[in-house]
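Sorry, I am new here, but would you mind making up a protein's amino acid sequence and the tokens describing how it folds?
***
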Amino acid sequence: MTTIRHTVTIDRPVEDVWDYVMDIRNDPVWTTNIVGVGRGAGEPVEVGLDFEETYRFLGVEMPITFTITEHEPHRRSAVEVADGPVPGRGSYDFEPVNGGATRFTATLQTDAHGFFRLAEPVFARMARREFATSVEHLKDILETDRGS
């Protein structure tokens, strides 16, 4: 199993970060490898919600369906891959810090098999880089766009 985790402190209140991240329609804006959202986008995020996103990795687009497995408003939300090329799960944790900022931690765990298992070290390194870039991009968007 591969675990990827990245934490940033975003100079915005937890409520602002939560609201932006929990709107699945924003995922293609801040997540570098998501190129589209489908079923479930725009729906209220709650345990049991299935939603679809299209990922681009190494130039290949692949649809992935996720199921929300945990949802504690302004604290934590977690998903599991319901249908996709690699089983996995992920979570977002939100913690208020420094009188109005948010410590945001994104975690991804994958359990590769078949071809993906053989190439896991290479894929994991690339995924870590893309994951960190996405989380840092989220920080930039939210700290720059103070009007929303």
In short: The first strand starts at residue 2 and ends at 10. The chain has one domain: 2-144. The chain has a mean pLDDT of 90.
